[in-house]
Amino acid sequence: MGVDDVRLKVILKNYEYFYIGCSGGCSGGELSAKLKKDFLRLLEKDVEFRTALVGLIGFEELRRAYVRLEESISGLARAQKETEEEIREFAGGLSRLERAVEELSMAQKRTEERLVDLATRLEDLAAAQKGTEERLGELAIAQRRTEERLGELAEAQKRTEERLEGLAIAQKRTEERLEELAMAQKRTEERLEELAMAQKRTEERLGNLTAGLEDLAAAQKRTEERLGSLTARLEELATAQRRTEEALRNLAIQVGQLSDVIGFGLEDIARVVVPSWLHRHEDIVVEELYREILVIDGEEIEVNLYGEGLKAGEKIVILGEVKSRIYRRDVEEFVSKLEKIEKLIDAKKYRLMFGYYIHPSAKELAEESEIKLIASYMR
Q: What is the pLDDT of residues 103-146, one digit of tens each?
């Protein structure tokens, strides 16, 4: 048996497995490529093989196998054609790729040139950035100094506003005080007219006093001398009043000038005003009030207004202090004086203070100490 016969048997055995053993369920495409190749070669070159094959499988089966073989060859040809077309396309793509690579090479060259330029610019920018950072540092320091200065200015502004507010309050109090003093001055003018009438009555009363009241007689003599020029001096008083409206700081001086012009000291005014006031408001009858010096434990204590009178038929002693402006400290001093004086007086006492102006701080203490505060404008 030759080699071809052995190969034929192998091929036929494989054929029997793939085509007969599959019982029609296998496709001719399931033959291996090598088996097909050997099968075709034997069919082409070996006549005896073709004859034996025809005898074994029959002509019809051979025809079907041939048809399938042609289809396989046709499929291979189409695949080969497609492969060649893909190769051509690949060649074209490769050419385009080479051109693209060349363009990329040129672009890379330009990019490198731009990078060199960019590096130069970056160095310039770095230098400029460094200068900017140094400048920013200086600006930051200047900003801190500015903020510190603004803080100081804000504090100064706050202090200024507080001082302005205090000045505004003081100004308001000054204006209120000026208004009060203007009203007080008006009442003083009205009271002066009453004093003139009261002085006239005082002269009549003084005519009946005993010769032993030398101090009072001397005061009356001065009063009579001053009353002769009362009308002319009242005009000077009106001029002084207009000046008092100009400023609060000159008021005390102007009131003093007013006293000099009219010719009455504050104590003289009190000696005229207080008796009638006591009679109207307290039902106390006292003929006169005068300055008295009392000696207590070897100490001389002066009482500005001293007098003995009657209230409801009972003896009462008047003890008074005269101050142009009565403050709390004046009340405290008078209370201290009274504590010494009243130890010598057995009769009932009436305490009073007389002045042009009574400060609110004096009122509470005076009330607690049972001291009556009388202003010159009070009727």
A: 888 888 898 888 888 788 878 888 888 887 888 888 789 788 87
pTM for this one?
0.34
pLDDT digits (tens, 9 = 90+) for 5-25: 555 566 556 555 544 444 444
Which one has a higher pLDDT value, 181 or 319?
319
Q: Write the secondary structure of the chain as one string of H (helix), E (strand) and C (coil).
A: CCHHHHHHHHHHHHHHHHHHCCCCCCCHHHCCHHHHHHHHHHHHHCHHHHHHHHHHHCHHHHHHHHHHHHHHHHHHHHHHHHHHHHHHHHHHHHHHHHHHHHHHHHHHHHHHHHHHHHHHHHHHHHHHHHHHHHHHHHHHHHHHHHHHHHHHHHHHHHHHHHHHHHHHHHHHHHHHHHHHHHHHHHHHHHHHHHHHHHHHHHHHHHCCCCCCCHHHHHHHHHHHHHHCCHHHHHHHHHHHHHHHCCCHHHHHHHHHHHHHHHCCCHHHHHHHHHHHHHHHHHCEEECCCEEEEEEECCEEEEEEEEEEEEECCEEEEEEEEECCEECHHHHHHHHHHHHHHHHHCCCEEEEEEEECEECHHHHHHHHHCCEEEEECCCC
Domains along the sequence of the chain with CATH: 3-57 (no CATH), 265-379 (3.40.1350.10)
